[in-house]
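Practice record 12: protein with 1,3-dihydroxyacetonephosphate.
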Amino acid sequence: MRQKIVAGNWKMNKTLDEALALASEVSNMVKDEVNTDVQVILAPSFISLTAVGKLIEGQKRLALAAQNCHHKTSGAYTGEVSVDMLKSIGVSFVIIGHSERRMYFNETNEQLAEKTNLLLQNNIRPIFCCGESLEQREKGIHIDFVKQQLTESLFHLDTNQLQKVVIAYEPIWAIGTGKTASTEQAQEMHEVIRKHIASKYGEAAAAEVSILYGGSCNPTNAPELFACKDVDGGLIGGASLKSRDFVSIVKSFSE
Ligand SMILES: O=C(CO)COP(=O)(O)O
């Protein structure tokens, strides 16, 4: 059975104290209110990772994620953070290939393949983001574009490695815009992604991969998005910064 996952990507928000307060609220609410087997992931900034990791240590439903890592093992890359460093503080997941990083930091599919390799070698699971722009969707090339992102960054992996990757489909036009993909649009692309994986790794392997939706997901739209056959949870931006909203989204899976 593939995992249900809700991950909060806090992006460049929250000071250390604010991050600890948010993590503590989420942790308490999850402990008291969540009865499903959903994996809840918190992705604070690098500054807060260690402290948030200590705070949630031992909480079985909660795991720690970083928002990025460098694609080389170590060396003269001023200001960067390596996979080894993340491993040393107990990070279990790393978000890679977010559209904001592709757009503002020129991340390429090739670099993401390197990041994926390094993470898996270190037993850290990548949360691999993919998704098209509005222009690509309007031109009707969105499906091929997303397939290409997957092929170029992930399809060198063996089946066992591929199944450790979490995919997050985040249409760029839905991120931070308040404009969510409809359930039809989300389900359509999630099915495309699963079938694309099946075409290389087989249906049984593809059925085990968790595919999350991201883009203006909130407590109101999450229940119907998560009810789609191929949607296994969400990668949440804005709504993950408010503990009540985030935990409401976590609770959107029917029990
Ligand atoms: O980019 C996202 C998560 O990684 C989605 O952000 P919003 O939920 O703020 O649209």
